[in-house]
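retry 2 of 3: previous attempt timed out while embedding flavin-adenine dinucleotide. Reduced batch size to 1 and resubmitted. Inputs unchanged:
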Amino acid sequence: MTDHAVIVGAGVIGLATAYRLARDGRAVTVVDAARGGSGASVHNAGWVVPILSAPVPAPGMLGTALRWMLRKDSPLYVHPSPRPEHVRFMVGMLRHCNPRDFRQGLEALTSLNERTVDLFDEYEKEGLRFEHHRDGALMVFHTREAMRTYEAATAPLERVGHTAAPLSGDEARDLEPALGAHVHGGLLCPRERHVDPASLVRGLTERCRELGVRFLWDSPVTGIRFRGTVATSVIAGGEEFPADHFVLAAGARTSRLSRLAGVPLPVRPGKGYGFDDTSGAVALRRPVYLGEAKVTVTPMSDRVRFAGTMEFGGFDEGVDPRRLGGIVRSARDFLPGVPTTARPDGWAGLRPMTPDGLPIVGPLPGRDNVLVASGHCMLGVTLAPVTAEIIAAQVEGGRRAADVAETARPFAPRRFARRRGRTAPDA
Ligand SMILES: Cc1cc2nc3c(=O)[nH]c(=O)nc-3n(C[C@H](O)[C@H](O)[C@H](O)COP(=O)(O)OP(=O)(O)OC[C@H]3O[C@@H](n4cnc5c(N)ncnc54)[C@H](O)[C@@H]3O)c2cc1C
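retry 2 succeeded.
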């Protein structure tokens, strides 16, 4: 009889996983609390950028965070919330802002990203239809110090074929004439890609349907039934959905789900904002990362997308105009042509953040057939295909699981599991 897998969450991670499992010949059901095509998987910059693998918690982040926290339009904002899970998460993140954890995290993400761009090429060969650009990416900086930090963080990626070539300000302006006079230098990253994220979500959904995947929309999962350590079904919309394997891929809301499975995982929302400019005021040949502003500017087929900011707090997805204003102002420092008009077309998305900045991928400890695919922070689009490869191998088991074991180890959920009846420090 065909194995049946239930995936909770139809974001880019759940969809990529559903597609991979269906390609293996499994029966797959995807259950989502909303309709398809919403959330962070649609509202993001669409960069496929192994070169930006550095984990968010980095040495020096505390000082920057404290400086920025005083300004409501800064690239980073932490809501002063007394909620224990928020405080625990922020303390956990600060604990990982040290050179050793940063280096190890970067090394693990470098290995994970080894096949990223090849897997996107395979998507196309397999008939997936989505807007996919191979123009590389350019990072630009106002100061030599900022550029040096990124040079150091991108160097390890050379091992897997992703390079960042230093440019002077004039060389960067020759490539992108829209850049302003204050740009001191840049890093040109020829192997990076970008996609229209909404088209990727649509393309994956279509291919899943063609492979017989069943979708249940507007069906929040509210319970998981177990027989001993084996999950037997999920409860959604009052109905029970049995399966042999369960994958929790609920993005920033994965913590609630994993709690239903008895293992609370520390995934918290990191809210980002963006807007799409169709005025044609800024013409770019490739995506550009505005270093000190931490803003991405992405040319897509019919618009230029601006995205940025990281706001730690609750699950509210409303748009704060001050944050959009912050993106416009800081982008104009690099690209003087950015229009100053108010942005009624702004959007927000919740990134699934983890305290160590690494995704959580693999079997839930103490549960035989529940896997987690979440916590991809700023790299969910980039890492969706490789995450799906790992989950599919782990569902299969045997030789295939052994082949991915080394790469997958740093991302195992067990690093956050309770120890001797106590919650792990970050969870
Ligand atoms: C401004 C911004 C820019 C970004 N830029 C990039 C980029 O350039 N490149 C990149 O790689 N990444 C980028 N990211 C990060 C990326 O968007 C995320 O990492 C990724 O979308 C996470 O995907 P996901 O499938 O895990 O979560 P989501 O997209 O949040 O999907 C989770 C799904 O689970 C569903 N769900 C939640 N709870 C339940 C429940 N109880 N029952 C059923 N369903 C449930 C939700 O409805 C949702 O559809 C960016 C993010 C933001 C916000």
